[in-house]
Specification:
By secondary structure, this protein is an alpha+beta fold. The chain is built from 8 helices and 22 strands. Strand 12 (about 255) and strand 13 form a beta hairpin. The chain binds adenosine-5'-triphosphate.
């Protein structure tokens, strides 16, 4: 039996369609991360599962039970918010036991649940303190502890790490993954941070404008995005997109011509294309080579600026007449990611290449018609 089932869910705010035909089945013990840009509907969907927001139509089931019309407290869920939402006048221990006290559970049971959560979250030394005496990361752990003590069927997380600094976010990511492994509970996690999605999820749900664009394991989505939106959303720096035209078709093979003499051949189109079709070629920054030996499809570019990140170099390149869209730094700019530190003087003219097996092809409506072949499949 699925842990959570979302069936044909729609949500309207007046004339605005915030959730459009959402269908999703989440298995027991999955860590599902919902990602998407601001306003895509991810918080609305999480709140609908929690019962903090009604749905206009459709059904929500938790462990096979229809909870669509139930109050949040009757759904078997516990939610962790970005703002922690701790009671300042209560100690850490009292905060963590609050849900059980409200449910009038016996004191011995509450104490045991708090002690267990404190051990899991390494908060044993902090139980007598008040929230203001804790760091941001410790406060978020208390909020998670409050959820754990209630032994919910499903944990819901709404951007829980957004208020933490970068180092703490990384640490908490690892802790949350370890917590999931230890508890084995179903977790649904909302974030706009694709790194959190890639690192923690057993499955990612990519949302855009109230619709699900694609659902799948992180590397499955990274390697085989269903469309241009998913391809552009997952991956930092973003995939480079170049406008081109189909100039030759032979069976399932196509040759694409872009500006500046750049031509790219694809030999495994998933669906037919016709000569004259306008298409988009996608190349991830890590697939580009600069002054690359052995790389096919070489074109010329000029170094605009370079970022040295310690173990890799990000190079922003002006690429002549090539029409690029949606890249990190705007039209006409290519981003290359080199896995070592190499100096690239500003304004230097360089040759840029890539292995054609690492390119993607998208139809005019954004659907993927050819995917790159990943170097490594897990
Ligand atoms: P963010 O990352 O910015 O929080 P989100 O993906 O979580 O974005 P939601 O909060 O789910 O987005 O909102 C989805 C859309 O619904 C937005 O366009 C928002 O303006 C709209 N919306 C949300 N709540 C309401 C409301 N109570 N009344 C009207 N519109 C709303």
């Amino acid at each position: 039996m699925a842990s959570v089932e979302i069936k044909d869910v729609q949500k309207h705010y007046g004339g605005f369609h915030a959730l459009n035909d959402i269908n999703l089945s989440i298995e027991e013990g999955e860590f599902v991360v919902m990602v998407g840009p601001s306003g895509c509907g991810k918080s609305t969907l999480l709140k609908a599962i929690a019962g903090l927001e009604t749905v206009t139509s459709g059904k929500l089931l938790i462990k096979g039970r229809d909870v669509t019309k139930l109050e949040p407290g009757d759904r078997g869920i516990a939610m962790v918010f970005q703002s922690y939402a701790l009671y300042p006048h209560m100690t850490v221990g009292e905060n963590m036991g609050f849900g059980l006290r409200m449910a009038r559970r016996p004191k011995a049971e509450i104490d045991a649940a708090v002690a267990r959560a404190a051990k899991i979250l390494r908060l044993e030394e902090q139980l007598k303190k008040r929230p203001k005496q804790l760091s941001g990361g410790q406060r978020q752990r208390v909020a998670i502890g409050r959820a754990i003590t209630r032994s919910p069927d499903v944990f819901l997380f709404d951007e829980p790490l957004s208020n933490l600094d970068a180092a703490l976010r990384t640490q908490m990511r690892v802790e949350l993954s370890a917590l999931h492994a230890e508890l084995g509970s179903t977790m649904i996690y909302v974030t706009h941070d694709q790194v959190e999605a890639m690192t923690m999820a057993s499955r990612i749900v990519v949302l855009n404008r109230g619709r699900i664009e694609q659902v799948g394991a992180p590397l499955e989505l990274y390697n085989n995005p269903a469309n241009l939106f998913v391809a552009g959303f997952l991956g930092a720096p973003r995939m480079n997109f170049v406008t081109g035209k189909v100039v030759e078709i032979q069976g399932r093979s196509a040759r694409i011509a872009c500006a500046s003499g750049l031509g790219v051949a694809f030999d495994d189109l998933a669906e037919p294309a016709a000569v004259g079709d306008v298409v988009t070629v996608g190349i991830r920054p890590e697939s580009l080579r600069i002054d690359g030996e052995g790389s096919a499809f070489t074109f010329r570019g000029r170094v605009r600026f370079t970022e040295y990140l310690g173990r890799e170099t990000i190079v922003y390149l002006d690429a002549g007449d090539l029409v690029t869209t949606g890249s990190d730094s705007g039209t006409g700019v290519f981003t290359a990611q080199i896995g070592e530190i190499r100096p690239f003087p500003t304004n230097a003219s360089v040759s840029i290449g890539f292995d054609p097996g690492h390119a993607y092809l998208f139809a005019a409506d954004g659907r993927t018609i050819s995917s790159a072949k990943p170097a490594i499949s897990l």
